[in-house]
Structure formats: structure tokens, C-alpha cells
């Protein structure tokens, strides 16, 4: 038949690995849109409160952050933002890896790196949000400089 | 037909040469000189245009080094009514017979001559030279993402492979009806747009996802699946939806709209892809 000698090397990048029957990509697609919509609110709200309200950006210091994380409302807000942005962003990078990395091994290595970075950041961030000490004391037992006002009152 | 045009006589069949005033004098713009000279009525302007064509031939390989694509410029005189395909014909017939491209119907029906003209996918037979800024060299390249065989000819096999995989034929169960399979006008209208596809690959080869990931089914396969998924007479929707639920199926689409922009039949490709996505999400057509 026509030019069979050329067929094999050419078709390699086009040959689909056996299709997997799962809804994984569908849920991933849906998640990108849903998390994106929630992120718009979370991120704009975050920027507004941190940079615009009150003293604006000049009011941003340790005390400000500590004050926010003393409130369960902001703990949940920041936790949601952390998780959603990290999963959304990592899933987006996964898509880009699928776009560009052709060899299976390259894909596996890159996606593993993304997953490690995701888990590390999410675990560390979650830990910080919940174990944060808003009123740290020095070795002398006194509050450190810059603690929020509610520590001393 | 005057002697000045006679060397292009072979080309006359699908060009409007009859309308060209063949007196050999420079022509004014159409209609401009109608009163000065009755023969000029409806005269078509002629102008020179340069085509910058991306050429590749495996035969150019030297001493074991693989052949490389190169750019070559050709200047031809065309009529204001000529299409890029006519300019390519002129080059092939009058200047360089080795220039290789596909065309069959030359009238936007067969889908053979999709190519990248000034960076966008078009059918060479549907785009007028005067409409793609002939003041500068017009670049003509093969469509992207498919292996080039020679000059503007690409290997369409991966494209048709995806097309075959969505089963673009009527799937029914039960006995053949003795009469036609009836359908209301509303039912027909649901997939009217996607019946227009001529499989030119302009959409698939304009898709940035397909450029980097050749395993992606691509817009054309989804358009042709849509054609049957939303056909009330067809019973294979679930199978086709399952095929497109693949890792390399509809979810690969990033809604860039390049495909809708490229389609020479004006099919709203991105919308069709979205309708398939929605059918998968709701599991209903
Ligand atoms: C602010 C609100 C955001 C919205 C509305 C949003 C929305 C989206 C949507 C809908 C997609 C899917 C695109 C597609 O498949 O066609 C996407 C992809 C992506 N997003 Fe977001 N996103 C937001 C924030 C973020 C953040 C904070 C990050 C980083 C941490 C991020 C990183 C990414 C990446 C890397 C992709 C993949 C890009 C691609 O598919 O080429 N996004 N985003
Ligand atoms: S959908 Fe349009 S661009 Fe795509 S193959 Fe069909 S006719 Fe060509
Ligand atoms: S040659 Fe048939 S579509 Fe252009």
C-alpha cells in the first residue's frame, strides 16, 4: 500500500494512548470554572480589604495580619483562597504540561513536581492559618513590638 | 482574448478572463473610465503581487542532513477578481511547476486547499488577493500541526483518524423503516450548522491545543460528532459523547475561538464544541 515506511514515525505524536473511561477531565474542567468564579470574589475581596480599606497599603503590617487571623471569618476566607488558588493553579499547570510535554516520562516528572509543590504549600499554609500566634511574647515574657492592640488590652 | 493574455489561457477556465479588457493598456479602476471608452465598462484592475511561500521537499536533503523548509518569493500579475488560488496556479503554471499544493473544486466545496495565508487559515480558493493586503508580500504556508509532505501539502491522516473515531455515520437500532426517517424542522435546525463542514481542517490546524498536542481530537472531529449527536434520527449519541469525554476530547478545548474564526463555511465551531460539553455535563442531548 501507499508509503507504509513513513507511517510509523509520523503518526507517533498523534496516536492516542488507549482512552480511559472516566469523567476526570470533565470534573477538572468544571472545577476550573467554579473555583475561578469563587476566586474572583475571594481575591478581589482580599485585595480590597488589605489594600484599600482604612489606611490602605500603609496600614499593612504584622499587627494587621495577626488581627485578621484572630477572626474565624478571615481564617476561613484565607483558607478557601489558599486551597482554591493552589488547586486551581496546579490543575492549570497540569493542563499546560499535557499541552507541551510529549514524552510520558517528562509528563510524570513535571506533574510530580507540581503535586509536591501543591501539597507543600497547602499544608504549610493551612498550618500557619490555624496555628498562628497573634500575640507572640519575647524571652522576657513581654509582647513583641507590633502585636495587634487587642493583645495588650 | 488578446495575445497579451494568451499565455494564461489554460487558466481561463475558472478565472473571469472574459471580463478582462485585453487591450494591453493599463486599466483604470472598475467603472472609472466607462464614459471615456465603452470597452472599459466593468474593467478589472490588474496589479503585481508577491507571494512568499513556505516550501519544503524531502528531496532537498543533502549528505544525510534532513531537508529544511525555506521561503521563496514569486511575483505575479493578477486581476482584481483573482483569488490566492489563482495566483498559486499562475506560479505553478508559468514559473515553477514544482510548487505543490492541493486543490480540487476551486470553489470552496471540496475542502482541499486550506492553507495559512498571512498567518490565518483560509481556503485559497475563497480569498481574493485584493482582500489580503497585496501591497506587501502575502505569506502562504501549509496548515499548522500536521506533518508537511511537500510545500503546502500536509499529511491529513491524523485529522481523518480523529474524524473516523467519532463515527460520523447514522447509528440506529431496530428494523429499517420502509419510508424515510421523519424529522421536524426544529429537530433538523439543531444540527444544521454542523452539516456544512467540508473537512478542510482549517479549524483543527488553527487550534493552539492541537499545535502542541496532536492527540487532541480537534474541532473538526467534534463538529462532525455534533452533526450526529444532535440528530433526532440517530441513536449513537451516548457512544460519541463517551468518545469525546476522553482525556484528549472536548475538555481539551480552551475556547480560543480560532476555529470559529478559521472556518470557511462560517460554522460556529466553538459553539458546537460547547454544546457537546454541555451535553456531556448534563448527560442529555
Ligand atoms: C481570579 C479569578 C480566576 C478566574 C476567574 C480563573 C479562571 C480560570 C479558568 C476558567 C481557567 C480555565 C481556562 C480554560 O480551560 O480554557 C483557568 C485556567 C488557569 N488558571 Fe485561573 N482563574 C482565576 C485565578 C487564578 C489564580 C489565582 C491562578 C494561580 C494560582 C490561576 C492559574 C490558572 C492556570 C495556570 C490556568 C491554566 C491556563 C491554561 O489552561 O492555559 N488562576 N483559570
Ligand atoms: S468545521 Fe469548518 S474549518 Fe473545520 S473542517 Fe469543517 S469546514 Fe473546515
Ligand atoms: S479547492 Fe475545493 S475548497 Fe478550495
UniProtKB/TrEMBL annotation, chain B:
Residue runs in coiled coils: none
Protein name, UniProt field: Fumarate reductase iron-sulfur subunit
Protein family: Belongs to the succinate dehydrogenase/fumarate reductase iron-sulfur protein family.
Signal peptide interval: none
Catalysed reactions listed for this entry: a menaquinone + succinate = a menaquinol + fumarate
Record-annotated membrane-spanning stretches: none
GO biological process, alphabetically ordered: respiratory electron transport chain; tricarboxylic acid cycle
UniProt keyword terms in alphabetical order: 2Fe-2S, 3Fe-4S, 4Fe-4S, Iron, Iron-sulfur, Metal-binding, Oxidoreductase, Tricarboxylic acid cycle
Keyword hit for Iron: yes
Positions of the UniProt region annotated as Disordered: 1-41
Amino acid at each position: 500500500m501507499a508509503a507504509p515506511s513513513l507511517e510509523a514515525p509520523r503518526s507517533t505524536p498523534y496516536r492516542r494512548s488507549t482512552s480511559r473511561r472516566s469523567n476526570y477531565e470533565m470534573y477538572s474542567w468544571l472545577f476550573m470554572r467554579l473555583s475561578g468564579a469563587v476566586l474572583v470574589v475571594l481575591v478581589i475581596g482580599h485585595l480590597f480589604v488589605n489594600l484599600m480599606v482604612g489606611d490602605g497599603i500603609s496600614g499593612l503590617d504584622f499587627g494587621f495580619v495577626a488581627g485578621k487571623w484572630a477572626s474565624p471569618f478571615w481564617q476561613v476566607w484565607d483558607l478557601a483562597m489558599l486551597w482554591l488558588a493552589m488547586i486551581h493553579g496546579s490543575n492549570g499547570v497540569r493542563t499546560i504540561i499535557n499541552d507541551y510535554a510529549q514524552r510520558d516520562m517528562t509528563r510524570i516528572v513535571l506533574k510530580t513536581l507540581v503535586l509536591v509543590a501543591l501539597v507543600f504549600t497547602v499544608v504549610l499554609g493551612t498550618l500557619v492559618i490555624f496555628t498562628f500566634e497573634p500575640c507572640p511574647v519575647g524571652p522576657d515574657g513581654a509582647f513583641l513590638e507590633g502585636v495587634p492592640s487587642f493583645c495588650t488590652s | 482574448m488578446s495575445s497579451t493574455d494568451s499565455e494564461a489561457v489554460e487558466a481561463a477556465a475558472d478565472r473571469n478572463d472574459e471580463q478582462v479588457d485585453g487591450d494591453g493598456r493599463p486599466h483604470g479602476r472598475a467603472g472609472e473610465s466607462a464614459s471615456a471608452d465603452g470597452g472599459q465598462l466593468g474593467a478589472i484592475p490588474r496589479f503585481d503581487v508577491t507571494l512568499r511561500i513556505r516550501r519544503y521537499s524531502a528531496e532537498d536533503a543533502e549528505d544525510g542532513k534532513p531537508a529544511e523548509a525555506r521561503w521563496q518569493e514569486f511575483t505575479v500579475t493578477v486581476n482584481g477578481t483573482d483569488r490566492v488560488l489563482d495566483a498559486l496556479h499562475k506560479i505553478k503554471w508559468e514559473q515553477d511547476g514544482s510548487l505543490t499544493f492541493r486543490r480540487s473544486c476551486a470553489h470552496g466545496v471540496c475542502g482541499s486547499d486550506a492553507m495559512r495565508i498571512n498567518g490565518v487559515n483560509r481556503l485559497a480558493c475563497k480569498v481574493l488577493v485584493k482582500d489580503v493586503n497585496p501591497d506587501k508580500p502575502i505569506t502562504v504556508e501549509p496548515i499548522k500541526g500536521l506533518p508537511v509532505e511537500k510545500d503546502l501539502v500536509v499529511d491529513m491522516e491524523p485529522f481523518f483518524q480523529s474524524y473516523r473515531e467519532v463515527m460520523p455515520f447514522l447509528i440506529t437500532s431496530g428494523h429499517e423503516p420502509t419510508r424515510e426517517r421523519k424529522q421536524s424542522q426544529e429537530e433538523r435546525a439543531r444540527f444544521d450548522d454542523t452539516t456544512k463542514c467540508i473537512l478542510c481542517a482549517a479549524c483543527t490546524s488553527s487550534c493552539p491545543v492541537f499545535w502542541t498536542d496532536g492527540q487532541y481530537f480537534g474541532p473538526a472531529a467534534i463538529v462532525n460528532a455534533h452533526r450526529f449527536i444532535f440528530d433526532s434520527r440517530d441513536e449513537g449519541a451516548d457512544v460519541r459523547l463517551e468518545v469525546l469525554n476522553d482525556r484528549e476530547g472536548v475538555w481539551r478545548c480552551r475556547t480560543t475561538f480560532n476555529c470559529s474564526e478559521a472556518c470557511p463555511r462560517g460554522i460556529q465551531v466553538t459553539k458546537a464544541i460547547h454544546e457537546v460539553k454541555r451535553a456531556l455535563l448534563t448527560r442529555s442531548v
